[in-house]
Amino acid sequence: MPERQMSTPPNFPYQGHYPPPPPPVFRPPAPSGRERVMSWVMVLAPAVVLFLLAGVVWLVFGTVRSAEVGQCGTLSGSSAVAEFEIADCADPDANYVVAEKFDQPDSACATKDYTSYYREGWKGYTLCLRLNAAEGDCFSGGPARASTKVECAGSADFKVDKIVHGVAATSACGPVGSDENTYLYPAPEPLTFCLAAPK
Q1: How far apart are CA 65 and CA 123, in angstroms?
Q2: Residues 157, 183: contact at Cβ < 8 Å?
Q3: Cα–Cα distance, 108 to 197 (Å, whole number)
Q4: 184: closest CA among 175, 176, 174, 194?
């Protein structure tokens, strides 16, 4: 019996072994509109928060002009809540002059006659303020609030009768000088304000 042989038809490719089929490709479903928005929010949110924080820091600290010795300003408010804004010394509302400045909040001024203004926190400081006054100026004010220039009439509490330069002592006001009717400012230039009742 003749051997059987198998022949392939001409031009028929070899069919002995086929390469394995490629693995199936799984594509995730396209993100919905809401998911796209949420992914952008997650990317942009930290940047927006940092931008806002930088803006707040700049507003709080970058725009605060710290007064220097010799500058005048308007002190308003009370001992509990006060605000000091730099102003021209000729401005009638400029009631104080910066006499001393310390880089720490709540530092002690040279005498009790200075009005102390301080800012706490980052870049905190203390300003020791003396009255921005000329002889004959009258003021209204008390221990719990700032002194303001007023007309020498019924609302005035005291008058700066005399200013003595070069000395800060009650004796500069003569025999009537006392702790109650003098303001002693030893810095930056020694000054004595002799106070009197308004007329």
Answers
A1: 11
A2: no
A3: 29
A4: 194
The whole-angstrom separation of Cα 73 and Cα 87 is: 4
Give the per-residue pLDDT at 19: 60
Tokens, residue 5: 């042989």
- Rounded to whole angstroms, what are the CA distances from 103 to 57, 61, 112, 117, 118? 19, 15, 19, 12, 10
CA-CA distance, 119 to 132, in Å (whole number)? Answer: 21
Please report which helix (H) or strand (E) contains residue 37, including its range.
helix 33-57
pLDDT of residue 13: 52
For the beta carbon of residue 84, count every other beta carbon within 10 angstroms: 22
Which amino acid appears at position 179 of this protein?
Answer: D
Total residue length of the chain: 199
Residue holding tokens 């002592």? Answer: 169
- The mean per-residue pLDDT over the stretch 12-24 comes to 56
How far apart are alpha carbons 34 and 64 in whole angstroms?
A: 43
Give bridge partners of residue 100 from the DSSP assignment.
128
Cα 151-110-98 angle, rounded to 5 deg: 50
Query: Among 66, 184, 180, 55, which Cα is nearest to 130's?
Result: 184
Question: How far, in Å, CA of 84 to CA of 14, rounded?
Answer: 97
Number of helices (H), then strands (E), belonging to the chain: the values are 1, 10
CA distances (Å), 164 to each of 168, 177, 185, 197, in order?
A: 8, 12, 10, 18
Q: List, for residues 131-165, the tens digit of each pLDDT value.
A: 999 999 999 986 668 899 999 988 899 999 999 99
